[in-house]
Amino acid sequence: MDLLDAIESSINSSPPLPGRTHSLSGWLAQPIEKWPNFSSQIIFQGDPMIGERLLSRKTGFHENINSINL
């Protein structure tokens, strides 16, 4: 569900909703330029794999994400 919500937010160019597995998971589908500065405290709350990606600034955004039909 977090992935679906993240993709929908990205397609709609809106800020992501808080995720279920990690409150910041939705940012992983956003362009890195849109990411706010996250505190290390919030990065490490929730799923550790998501926290690692956030800390490494590894976005899953793709420029053609808006062509996905949900």
Can you offer a commentary on this structure?
The chain has 70 residues and is an all-alpha fold. It has one domain. It is built from three helices and no strands. It is globular. The model has no long low-confidence stretch (mean pLDDT 90).
Concise synopsis of the structure shown:
By secondary structure, the chain is mainly alpha-helical.
Radius of gyration: 11 Å
Shape: globular
Q: Could you tell me the number of beta strands?
A: 0
Helix count from the secondary structure assignment: 3
- What's the helix-strand series? HHH
Residue windows where pLDDT falls under 50 for at least 5 positions: none
Largest sheet: none
Terminal-residue CA separation: 12 Å
List keywords for this structure.
about 70 residues, mainly alpha, single chain
Task: Please specify the SSE layout and strand pairing.
Elements: H1 2-11, H2 40-43, H3 48-56
